[in-house]
Amino acid sequence: MAPKTLYDKHIDSHTIRKLDEHGHVLLYIDRQVANEYTSPQAFSGLREAGRKVRRPSATLGVVDHVNPTAPRRTAEVADAGGARQVSYFGRNCEDFGIELFDILDGRQGIEHVVAPEQGFILPGMVVAAGDSHTTTYGALGAFGFGIGTSEIEHVLATQTLAYKKLKAMRVVVNGPLAPGVTSKDVIMALIGRIGASGASGYAIEFSGSAIDDLSVEARMTICNMAVEAGARGAFMAPDEKVYAYLADKPRAPKGEMWERAVAHWRTLYSDPGARFDREVTLEAGELAPMVTWGTSPDQVVSIEGRVPDPAGEPDPLRRMDMQRALRYMDLAPGTRLDALPITHAFIGSCTNSRIEDLRAAAGVLRGRKVAPGVRAMIVPGSTPVKRQAEEEGLARQFIDAGFEWRQSGCSMCLAMNDDVLAPGDRCASSTNRNFEGRQGAGARTHLMSPAMVVEAAIAGRLADVRTAHAANPEA
Amino acid sequence: MEPFTREQGVAAPLLSANIDTDVIMPKQFLKGIDRAGLDRGVFHDLRFLPEGGPNPEFVLNRAPWRDARFLVVGPNFGCGSSREHAVWGLRQLGIRALIGSSFAGIFFDNCQRNGVLLIELDQERVGEIGEWVSEAGSATLEIDLPAQTITLANGVVVAFDIDGLRKDVLISGLDAIDRTLTMSDRIERFEARHFADQPWLA
Asked: Among the four A64, A106, A186, B77, which has the fewest Cβ within 10 Å?
C-alpha cells in the first residue's frame, strides 16, 4: 500500500463515499463548535425547512464573539444586535438539544480555547466550525477547518460536508528556538516567508524538532494562525505531550476506553516516504521576535527590522499594496519598528490567551509598570484560564503593573463587542489579524507574541523582549 | 439558490491583493440574525466617507461600475474571517461572479453555496481583463457557464476551467442539503462502523 500522509489518513478515515473522480468526497464531521454570530441564519434555515439537527451531541455552543469583557461579569450585552444574537443562540441550542456555554457559565470562553480545554476535541477527529481559526485543533492531532454559515447548516442537518481534498504541505521547523522567541514568531515568520496565500489550497503538517519541543498550547498558536497563510487545515502528529494534555480533561475518554483510544492515536502520523506536494523548512535558531508593520499578516519583519520601502518592490501590484498599507498604518519607509510609539496593548484571542501565554507575559513584567498614556488590557481565553491565572497570582501581577484584567471573550481581536479602538490608535496585539479596521475603523494593529506585547506596553513603543534590560536601542 | 447559466453585465476592477472579509463586510454589519441590510455593508469603509456620503473615488460608486454584476479581483480575495455575510452582501449588491487568480478557501465555498460563480485564471490574464474593464467603454462582459467562456467587449473569448460538480450545482441551483440527504443511508452505515471502530467518538 502506498505510504499515506497524516492528512490522507484524516480524510480517508472520514470519507463516506466519493462524489466524483476529481477529489470530491462526502466527509464525515465528528464535532462542530457553534457561536452566536455565525450560526443564527443556519438555525433559521433548519427551522424554515423543518429539519432537525442530526446529532446534537456532536455540537457544542459557546458565546464568545459579542459578549462584553468588563471586569464584572453580567449576562447583559449592551448593543441590541449582539443581545439578540445571544438570545436567539440560547433559544436555538435549547430547541435543537445542543449543549451551550452561555456568558455566565463557568466554562465559557473563546471557542478554540474552550473546546480543547474540555476535551471535546480528540486526536484523529475531523472538526468543522463556523470560525476560520478552527485550524487550532490540529495541535491535538485533529483536523479542523473553518466553514461559512451555509456549511454550518449542512453539518447540523447531515453531520457531513461535500469536501474537496486539498494538497498536502509539510513545514519542517528545525530547533531549538532562541531565547525570547516563541511559537507565535515561528508562525509569523512562516507567513512572511510563504505569503498570505502561500498555503492556499493546502493542508499543512508541521513537524521537526522545534515542534516536538513545543508544548501543546504553543503548538495551538501555530495551527491557529496557519489560516493567515491561507491553509485550510494545519496539524501535527499527536504525541505523548498531547496524551498528557488530554488525560485529565473532562470529556476525554477514561479507563479502558482511554487505552484503546491512545493505541489508535499512535497510528496517526505520516508514513515514511509519504509524498507531500510542497515542503518548506524553517531554521528556528535563526528566528527573532516578529512584528507586523502592515495590514496583512505577511507584512512582517523582525523587531530588529525597519519598515520596508515600496520603491524596492519590483512587482507593481505588490508595490501598490505596500503603499496602501503604509498610508493606513501612517508609517514611513525605513522607520525602525522598535521606535514606534503605541497607545494600546492587548493580550487575548484564540491565538494567544491560554494559561501558558499569560505565564510568559507575566514572566517578563519583573515589577515594571505600563508606560503612561498606554491602555493595556488582558482578556483571558476562557473563564477557567482566568480563574487559574488568579490562583497562580498572575492576575495580581498584571493589575499591579497597570493592566486591565478582564473577563473572557474574543474582545478586541475583532472588536465585535464594546472593546473597540478609535481611529489612529496604535495597538501592540497578541491577536492574529492586522487587517484594516479589524480592531476598530482606522485603528492600527501590530501583531506579536504576548511577551512582546508586555514589553511594548512597558516601553510605550514596540520593543525587543530580548534586550529589555538594556538601555533604549539607538534609533 | 438562483441558478447561473449565462450572465451579461458590467465588471468592476478591484485588483489589490488580499482583500479580506473584514474589508468586504465590516464588523458593524455582523450583528443580525438574518441576512437583511448587508447591501449597505459591502465594502462599507471604501464606499462611504466617514461623514456618511458615498466616496466618489471608489470604483463601485462610479458609472458604469456602480451597476457591476461581476468583479475582477486581486490574488487571495476573501481571505480572513469565515463570515458568509461578505458573500450575502455581494449577492445583495447584485454581484453574480468574480474573476481572479486565487480565492481564500472558506470564501470560495461560501460563494459556491450562494450561487456566486468564482472563475480562476492565471494572474496575467486576470490583469489583462482587469485593465480592459477599467475603461468605461469596455467594462461589459458576458459569462457563459455551460460553455465555460468569458466574452470581453472586444469579442475576445477567454475559456476557463471549473470542475464538473461545482458547475452542475451552480447551473441547477439545487439545494446542497437535499442532495446530501439522498445519501442518508450511506451516512448511517458509515456512522455505525465509525463508532464501532472508535467508540470514544460517539
From this structure: A106
